[in-house]
Request: fold
Amino acid sequence: MLLIRLRTQEGLERVQVPDDGASNGGGAATVGDLRAQIEAQLGIPAAEQVLSLRQELLLQSADLAHFAAADTLADPAARLNAVGVQHGSIVYCRHTVQDREVAPVTQVNTTAFRPSMTVEQLLAKQIRIEREEKGACASCSLDFAAANAFQQYVNQLAFKSKRGGFMYGRADEDGKVEVEFIYEPPQEGAAEELALLLESDAAAEEQRRVDFLAAALGLQCVGWIFSQTAEGREFCLEKDITVTTAEFHEMLRQQRRAGGDDRFVSVVVFIDEAEDGEEGATEIQFEAFQCSKQSVQLWEAGVFDEEAKDATVSHTTKPIVVAGKDVTEVDNDFFLVPVSILNHNSDRLKCSFPVENRIIPQGVAELREHLEAHRHRKYVEKLSDFHVLLYLSKQFQLETDMALLAGAVAAQSEVRDGYQALIDAMAGI
Reply:
């Protein structure tokens, strides 16, 4: 049996395709078989499907006629393994079906209610958990430079240590989120866990400066981004889950930390087999999700058992009702709402200065190198990098000097000569 991850306009879904040789890499399953299973399992008629291994298919500007006629998945008779589709592969699907209902994926305890239920269990009967088909966040667009800086560093660590960061940007009334920069707080990453070191006075002070600068730039915390290790990704694929329980709980924790904003979004970064490259080739992927409103409410109420060690499902401290059943464990994917992920180039902020709290240092030498690399640009453009501003905030008064400098960057206006001279002197120029 082949498990194929299908990304549609609605988000990420899963399709199982019978294939007797899937376990040894062979098999005779064809593109036509995949189309038939998409129709049977997801309700998208085969005639309405345009399939590709290229994510450009989902762009509004995509030439659908070209994909339908010339793509490697255009031939229904082509064998899946011959066109690069294997167990765990991501296939992109464009369709015109309206108002689709995405079926929930849950793991439930089939034990029915019994007459001997306690009062607490009767009260739990009122907690009815429903699948949230559509979140408040319509899309998440990452600044290309910021996302690239994050994934490059994780790649330098060979995807052996987890890494996380807070995404800052803006969210409009339609739920469209634009991420302008990523702040990476003090942290210790390992293969299986990520510890954020937020409790020290130094970390709290740095966070205060981050939030002040973000506000001066007209931005706010809109999400959480984290990487999965290569080993962790293998585990998720093997267990047919999107994220581990610890990762899901961290998503909930950060969404609650941000005030429970309905538009708060989490992005997971992982390395995967390249869909159309040489054997053994890999590519880095980004996927975006929201935690459902009910899961956030359950987290706030202390219903999730944080001490449970099961990495594949979330355990609850008391029974809840899912699909009419009394359960104490739920598939984490049940609480995840897929979000369309995009990218853009910020019209103000760049990301070329070393990022804080990494092995790579931030210092006078790095500041000098940064300024000299951009010596032919306007001075405000030299400072139009959040990580530069955060570094300078250690040297200048936050509420006065940095407010003026960040304001100049926000408006792309001229930086006062006095500040230019001070910063140049600080860098030894």
Notes: Confidence is low (pLDDT under 50) at residues 104-117. Residues 30 and 80 are 5 Å apart (CA to CA).
